[in-house]
Amino acid sequence: MIIEPSRDWNVFKQIFVDHWQGFKQCRPRYATPYYEGLVNKMLDCGNPDKMGYVEYRCLDCGQGHHLVSMSCKSSLCLRCAKVYVDDWVTQVSKMLHEGVIYRHIVLTVPDVLRPPFYQNTDVLLSPFMQCGVKCLDDFFSEVSGKALKGGYIVVVQTHGRNGHYNPHLHIIATSGGWDTQGAQWVHLGYLPYVMLHKKWQWYALEMCRDALPTDAMNRLVQTCYDTYPNGFVAHVQKGDVPSRYQSLARYLAKYVVSPPISLRRLDRYEGGYVTYHYRSHRSERVEWERVDVYTFIGRMIQHSFPKGFKRIRYYGVQATKTFAKIKGLVRQALAKVGAIVKGAIKIIAPKNYRERYRESSGGDPLICPHCHHEMGVWKIWHPKYGVVYDELEAIRKGRYAWAGRSAAG
Ligand SMILES: [Zn+2]
Ligand SMILES: [Zn+2]
Fold first, then answer.
1. Which one of 81, 82, 222, 254 counts the least CB within 10 Å of its CB?
2. Which of the ligands is closest to the CA of residue 9?
3. Residue (of 373, 143, 88) closest to 254 by Cα position
4. Are the C-beta atoms of 294 and 25 separated by less than 8 Å?
5. What is the mean pLDDT of each run of 10 residues along the chain (409 residues)?
6. How buried is residue 347: exposed, middle or buried, by Cβ count under 10 Å (0-12/13-18/19+)?
7. Which ligand is closest to the CA of 372, given by its number?
8. Can you tell me the distance from the alpha carbon of 274 to that of 268, in angstroms, rounded to the nearest whole number?
9. Ligand number nearest to the C-alpha of 45
10. Which ligand is nearest to the CA of 81?
11. Cα distances (Å, whole numbers) of residue 80 to 3, 276, 302, 395
């Protein structure tokens, strides 16, 4: 069948309904209660009887009625991807400091390391994030000749644009670091890439050797040193990085929290095959890929992280209360180099359900269509806890009795 935009979500679910059981038999690695839960949650997403709901009613005329189903927020759920991105943007915006210059640095590993990363996610991903930070602290220190501690927001991403497994780090790093000894902020205007490549290679490979001390890994590490004498790819995004910080988090979200294959990119689901497209970095063109359903499910699910795994982490001066203390000094130092960005950072307020609805439909869901008064919460039902709020019950129990008496009296 050819997929129409409005049917994308249903088709995505249908692929899992049709093939999840078979997929698990093929790839027993995913036959666990955790993955089972992820898939079930995703399939139930948006269904009020399964996920729970908030019911609104017009308390003025009694006619207006609106039901909001709870969303699943599962990492596998493409329907929730937008909510997830909005929450992410809010969270990261709060951590960006006005007047501070940040860089977006991407640290990658070569193809040969992808299989061991895929097979040992539990063991490798956390040390991977930490070693990116150690590498940058060391790099900044060597460049400046002082022991510097930078501030970092680290996000691990495990897929490339085509949905293939490709673990890499996106790091929002301060443009220098705090020199504890000199009690000053040291700004680095220029970064020597050649040095960063070599350093990153060393940190990444030694981390692999430490975290996974097997003969196979040892051999792989040696191969990597031999094959890549110039180091691993590490680049600082330039040019299109927005200079205004209110949009920095939004810009980053595009890179780091987008799903492996987005709903709008599914073109066809037919005869056990799925066709989707993506924009390739390499060719700068839209490319199509046709894969069997098991490969498709595999590509979607291999990017859900181990249970409890934190994808975004804050390190160095960014992570601690230190930043509040040294912020003044950081700004002074940056003002001196003349590179400070003028104007305050606008923190992007979290978008709630109502704003999102308004954005997509143009209407306000909580205004009664009959009398145009604002509706109130009538009932909240949760699949595990049952009815957690009931306005009618509250009225019966006399919640408004005192107010009523006083109005009457
Ligand atoms: Zn969902
Ligand atoms: Zn009304």
1. 254
2. 1
3. 88
4. no
5. 60 92 92 90 86 87 87 77 73 74 86 91 92 95 94 85 82 86 85 90 96 95 94 72 61 69 81 86 81 90 78 78 76 64 44 72 83 86 79 71 42
6. middle
7. 2
8. 6
9. 1
10. 1
11. 20, 20, 18, 35
Can you say how many angstroms the Cα of residue 72 is from the centroid of all Cα atoms in its chain? 15
- Going across the sheet that includes 386-390, the strands are 65-69, 53-57, 376-382, 386-390
Pairing of strands 376-382, 53-57: antiparallel
Cα of 374 to ligand 2 centre, how many Å?
8
- Beta-bridged to residue 165, according to DSSP, are 159
Residue 409 alpha carbon to ligand 2 centre in Å: 27
For the record, the structure tokens of 260 come out as 């492996």
At 221 the pLDDT is: 96
Between CA 231 and CA 352 the distance in angstroms is 45
Say how many Å lie between the first and final Cα of the chain, rounded.
Answer: 68
> Which two tokens mark 20?
């999840």
Residue 180: count of CB within 10 angstroms of its CB: 12
8 A C-beta contact, residue 261 and residue 300: yes
Q: How far is the CA of 51 from the centre of ligand 2 (A)?
A: 27
Q: Which runs of E-coded beta strand occur in 141-265?
A: 148-149, 151-159, 165-174, 176-179, 184-187, 234-236
Amino acid at 330: V
Sheet holding 102-108, edge to edge: 234-236, 102-108, 165-174, 151-159, 312-316
Identify the residue whose tokens are 């980053």: 252
**Number of separate helices (H) and strands (E) present in the chain:** 14, 15
Shortest CA distance to 316 belongs to which of 179, 144, 221? 179
pTM over 0.85: no
Q: How much is the CA Rg of the chain, to the nearest whole Å?
A: 25
Residue 221's SS3 state is helix
DSSP class of residue 375 equals: P
Per-residue tokens: 272: 């056990």
> What's the token pair of residue 121?
């996610």
Distance, CA of 284 to CA of 12 (rounded, Å): 27
160: helix, strand or coil: coil
DSSP-derived letter for residue 306 is: P
